Amino acid sequence: MKVILCEDVDNLGDMGETVNVAPGYARNYLLPRRLAVHAESASAKQIEHEMRIIGKREQKRRAELVQVAGTLEGVTLEFTAKAGAEGKLFGSITNLHISNKLAELGHQVNRRKIQLAEPLKSLGEHAVSIQLTSGVGATIKVIVEAEEPESGKAEKKVATTEAAPEGAESSAAEEPSTEEALSEVIVNTGDGDESAGEPATS
What we know:
Blueprint: E1 2-5, E2 18-20, H1 23-30, E3 36-38, H2 44-72, E4 76-81, E5 88-93, H3 95-104, E6 114-115, E7 120-122, E8 124-133, E9 136-146, H4 150-159, H5 168-174, H6 178-190
Parallel strand pairs: 4-9
Antiparallel strand pairs: 1-2, 1-3, 5-7, 6-8, 8-9
């Protein structure tokens, strides 16, 4: 069944396009939600009316996307990833990663609009194109740096541990232990005045 799209539909087409779809998909999803109109059974007048509406929507949306492209142009995203000795990533940076990072900065971009021939698999600086709609896009910079090894993090943590106050060890060493203090008390008790325990004589 041929339909004319009234809105952009993922994995199907953009607003204003005429596409072939399964009849059930058109009847149960596209037509009830006014995402499309029937291109074959509709009258020429109805189609002309719908196309005028679509044209106005497209003009407004295009103006909005031009503004979005202006805010995206020159944006720099930074990622850290585990990499081998030659700078090859153990994993990869995908258009979904880039879309999520842009969202953190307040830019809502569908990952399908991010043009990556393949995921980024190497360290360094990469120019990534974003195609918002036909003729409207921007180029952003993606920098991928090596993730710091866990051993390096542990060494840095040890190195930055706060040192004990000066003289703390010496003062602790000079203070007698509990056993030493106890033995001193016992010795002093045994060496006391022997007459202290005898009854006084008149």
